[in-house]
Amino acid sequence: MLLFAMIHPLFGDRERNDHDVGRTRVKICCMGSVAEAELAIASGADAIGLVSAMPSGPGVIDDDLIDQIARSVPPSIATFLLTCETSAESIARQVRRSGVNTVQLVDRIEPDGHRRLRELLPAVAIVQVIHVTGENSIDEANAVSSHVDGILLDSGNPSLAVKELGGTGRRHDWQISRRIRDAVQVPVFLAGGLNASNVAEAVATVRPFGVDICSGVRTGGRLDGAKLDAFFAGITESAQ
Question: How far apart are CA 236 and CA 35, in angstroms?
Answer without folding.
Answer: 25
